[in-house]
Amino acid sequence: MTEKTTLPLATTADMVGIKAGTLRRWAEYHSAYLSTTANPLAGQARRFTHKDVEVLRMVADLRS
């Protein structure tokens, strides 16, 4: 997966092992550590990079 490849919310949530609603909250709370596409302007779909998935997996590990 290249850095320009992005993933939709549902796919990212499955990869991290969390629900879509949880991913939305985490994306907002941890926005400083995620790509701008993880928290887009209103009306645009959230998209996550490979690095975003890595960060979110670390968050999940720390929370478990």
Separation, N- and C-terminal Cα atoms: 27 Å
Largest sheet: 2 strands, antiparallel
- The percent range for strand residues is 5-15%
**What is the string of helix and strand elements?**
EHHEH
Q: How are the strands of the largest sheet arranged? A: 1-2
Rounded average pLDDT: 94
Helix content: 40-55%
Overall structural class, as computed from helix and strand content, comes to mainly alpha
Number of strand segments = 2
Question: What does the radius of gyration come to?
Answer: 11 Å
Overall geometric form: globular
Low-confidence stretches: none
- Helix run count: 3
Explain this structure to me?
- The chain is mainly α.
- The chain has 3 helices and 2 strands.
- It has helices spanning 9-16, 20-29, 50-63, and strands at 7-8, 47-48.
- A two-stranded antiparallel sheet has the order 1-2.
- Helix 1 (9-16) packs across helix 2 (20-29).
- It is globular and about 30 Å long.
- It starts with 6 loop residues before the first strand and ends with a helix.
- The mean pLDDT is 94.
List the helices and strands and how they pair.
Blueprint: E1 7-8, H1 9-16, H2 20-29, E2 47-48, H3 50-63
Antiparallel strand pairs: 1-2
Helix pairs in contact: 1-2
Summarize, please:
This protein is mainly α. The radius of gyration is 11 Å and the shape is globular. Helix content is 50%, strand content 6%.
